[in-house]
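In response to a reviewer's request, we include the raw inputs and outputs for one of the modeled complexes. The two entities were modeled together in a single run.
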Amino acid sequence: MILLEAQFEPPMLAFLRKNQVLLSSFLCVFLSLTILAAAAKGHLKSDPIGPLLVTLMRPLQIGVQAMVFWIGDIGEVSARLVRLAGENQQLRQHLQELEAERNRLLEVEATNRRLREILDFRSQLPSESLTAGVIGNSASTWFRSLTLDKGSNEGVSKGMAVVSPAGVVGQVVAVTAHGAKVLLLTDPHSGVDVINQRSRARGIVAGSLDEGPIVKYVKRSEDIQTGDRLITSGLEGVFPKGLLVGTVTKTRKKSFGLFQYVGVELAADPSRIEEVLLVAPAATPLKEKNLS
Amino acid sequence: MKLSLLFLAVGFLLVLLQTTALHLLPLGPIVPDLMLVLCVYWGLNHPTVAAVLGSFILGYSVDVFSSPLLGLNAFATSLVFLAVYLSSRCIWIHDSLLSAAVVFAASLIKGLALLTASSLFLTADGLWRGLIHYMLLDALAAAALAPVLFFLLRRGQRYMEAPEMPL
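The model returned the following structure tokens for the whole complex.
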């Protein structure tokens, strides 16, 4: 019976059944266009499906959106951390570069200051003075010396006085074509004639291995006090007169003997000297400015 | 019936995803149109009256949530379904890449449909600027995700259509 009904289905119904998808599609397109036209003209007063859909979706959307925000926050925090780590690394590198640059500039500034002092100092010295850099120190415990980067080719000669803006350093004892050896005042074999700036008492500052520099040959009767400034006398014809040699740190008179013991702290610390001035042997006194 | 319920659930899920989670993707303003992929899938693999209605409702739901005018997306998705359904009579698609190509073409059709409908019922002045750029990006994003979604839908459909084993 059912088979018979199917076989004798009206042609119209068969057509609809056969093309139901196509027809319903066209119908939906037409329906949507109708809705669209009505909505565009403002004739669509009430929307029966929209509010229902919104109501249905609202709790789900709230839940998912909260999760999305949470994931987004995590992602953002992670991204920020990664970005900060990269930025931190860059800043560290930048800081290191700046630190290196700062050190370089400080060194340049210090060198500049030293050279300026030397230039100022040089203007007070006789015109035959040279500037030289220290390139080496003593290789022996028993001797105190420096090696300079200038030699005979640059005009350095044996016997030249070696001074710095701080004070007397020593004397050139050996010269090569491009280098010179300086015997420091702290060496036991060195000596420079000095005058006490206050009392005008005389003596010879020399190095010693155990007690540091001392003033030799100061008579017991001479007036020497701690803190007195000692300057070159210029009498030996090596150092210009008036250069600061050091300050008296200790005086001691024994119950016997002709001389008293005088300890000295040198004005120029040899271990911290980087540039020096070389002055040709002359008895030319320094200008008055340096004497002060 | 079970399959229709599955598709209904998937449709709801896609609406939910498209209005929320898909904005997380780093695609800027582009939101992959997964509902379009579902419409194409229905048009190719499940062309029924329920699928037609499903496509219409999907488009309508997009209208409800984000369209300036009701019916715009409903029109576009219905038209896309129709176009895919008509083309499915001529071609048989079972390859993932081909499905991506069909989704790409469907996305372009949808874009043109939206543009036409907007021109007719709204103003399309603002749409012209960067239209081709966004249309292509939208189509690419949908096409890129199409193979995965097709795969999942096929698996789901097979699972639902599998005959129950007698005890």
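As requested, we also summarize the result in words. Chain B has a mean pLDDT of 81. Chain B has one domain: 2-160.
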